[in-house]
Amino acid sequence: MKAGFFFSILLSLLAQLSLAQYQYQALMNYLESRMTAIEERISVWNEQNNRYNIDLKKFRLQATDLLEKLGKEHVKLQEDLEGAKLQVDRVEREMDFMETKHPPKPCVKAADKIVEQKPVVTERKKKDEFFEVSVCVDLVSNIRAMKILKRLGSTKGVWTKDARTAKVYIFNGTSDDTLYEFKSVKQLSASSGMSKSKQITLPSAWNGTGHAVYDGFLYYITETSELKVNKFHLENRSLVDNAVLPVQEQVSVYSLNPETIVDLIADEEGLWALYAIGTINLAKMDSDTLDIEHMWETSCSRINAEAAFFVCGTLYVVYNTRPPSRAKVQCVFDVNDMVTPEEAPLFYFPRRFGTHSSLKYNPVEKQVYAWDDGYQILYRMSLKKKLFAIMPPPEE
Ligand SMILES: *[C@@H]1O[C@H](CO)[C@@H](O)[C@H](O)[C@H]1NC(C)=O
Ligand SMILES: *[C@@H]1O[C@H](CO)[C@@H](O)[C@H](O)[C@H]1NC(C)=O
Ligand SMILES: *[C@@H]1O[C@H](CO)[C@@H](O)[C@H](O)[C@H]1NC(C)=O
Predict the structure, then answer these.
(1) 242 and 290 Cβ atoms separated by less than 8 Å
(2) Ligand 1 mean position to 151 CA, how many Å?
(3) Ligand minimally distant from the alpha carbon of residue 236
(4) Cα-to-centroid distance, 153 and ligand 1 (Å)
(5) Exposed, middle or buried: residue 15 (CB in 10 Å: 0-12, 13-18, 19+)?
(6) C-alpha 33: how far from chain center
(7) Where do the Olfactomedin-like domain residues begin and end (predicted)?
């Protein structure tokens, strides 16, 4: 009786083991064949470097999918899978090497010091390239340096620089119909108050600190009975378009900045909107038509959040306390699921006394334009590459 019982358990264990072993072997074969294919393709890298990136991404996703399933089945397999991971890493290192020799379309242009950039002259990307956000694999690892530029205006506000035209914009306070344009950060530094600026008056007042400027356009939020995104051409002083956001309850996206219901980010990929439905949600919009293309529910809480910034498809939410202490990045969300919890950077801002009312990342300069209790601050970010470490998901 008993022996038969144990025997049947043993049999079923053996069956499970050999199934796992079989799947492992199939996976290794699959990895090997993909690896060979990739290595062959490296030789024709020059012509294909762009497509190659996309293939690698697909392969990574497929490989992770398989690996995740297997990871659940057998602990021993996990160790063996590390071997497969090393192979993937090796190819990635080769990729990195090839990429440095023949850089693919970068998401950003490097600038090495806290200095002014020249206006960017490349053509704006077409909208159907949305998922190319994944080709950009920079991950913020830390804050390398800080520069306090000025103290201007009220406690809350926004300062930001158009990453394409290099002009600087000041939004003083959390609700007004006027903004100030400076030709450069240097001009702003030299200006006493807004004296050297060009004043721009909008057809309707903005609310909060969620404004974004990109490629000569201002995207701003008006809070009436409905929540509207407005697109304004700064040179022509004309409202080009607007759209109502499908947000029922007007809850602030960051609890420590109650005036900001929606935070907008404009970059090469388009327009991104952050708003709260329970947790912080993210929508990807077409910056030409203001259509919503995609929505994500991040797991980042709005409670004790003060601001956020967005780099290469990854959202970094910054938290603080009341009264303010040290701001820290405590929640990270990647739209392509390319950042594992283990490599998600959690870091502190330099010790300061205030609360950030806005953090605007400039991808060309790799620095954040921050408004901290009336101070205009630049945070220079250290970047590394997303590793996309392969590991089984945590047990539920
Ligand atoms: C900014 O706004 C505050 C409050 O509305 C006002 O007192 C201050 O004069 C403004 N600053 C400038 C430089 O316009
Ligand atoms: C938005 O701005 C307008 C104009 O300054 C102001 O009247 C209104 O109270 C603001 N709304 C909120 C919710 O702060
Ligand atoms: C700005 O004005 C110029 C000249 O009137 C016009 O050609 C151009 O299309 C306008 N741009 C936008 C975005 O409205």
Answers:
(1) yes
(2) 11
(3) 3
(4) 5
(5) exposed
(6) 33
(7) 135-385
Q: Is 344 exposed, middle or buried (0-12, 13-18, 19+ CB in 10 A)?
A: middle
Phi first, then psi: what are they for 325, rounded to 5°?
-125, -130
Cβ–Cβ under 8 Å, residues 295 and 307? no
Residue closest via CA to ligand 2's atom 9 equals: 175
Give the class (CATH, top level) of 103-390: mainly beta
* Ligand 3 pocket: which of 164, 230, 236, 240 to mutate (most atoms within 8 A of CB): 236
Beta strands (DSSP E) in 193-320 are 198-207, 212-214, 217-223, 227-233, 238-244, 263-267, 270-277, 279-285, 292-297, 305-311, 314-319
User: 134 to each of 38, 58, 60, 137, 302, how far by Cα in Å?
Assistant: 19, 10, 12, 6, 26
Q: What is the pLDDT of residues 109-147, one digit of tens each?
A: 333 344 444 554 434 344 343 444 446 788 999 999 999
Dist. CA 181–CA 205, nearest whole Å: 16
- DSSP lists the bridge partners of residue 95 as none
Omega into 323 within 30° of 0, i.e. cis? yes
Q: What are the beta bridge partners of residue 376?
A: 150, 371
User: What is residue 366's three-state secondary structure?
Assistant: coil
pLDDT tens by residue, 164-181: 999 999 999 999 999 999
Six token digits for residue 374: 């009336």
pTM as predicted: 0.69
Q: What is the CA(257)–ligand 2 centre distance, in A?
A: 14
Cβ of 154 closer than 6 Å to ligand 3, yes or no, is no
Please report the atom of ligand 2 found closest to the CA of residue 207: 1
Which residue in 350, 349, 351, 313 sits closest to 332, CA to CA?
313
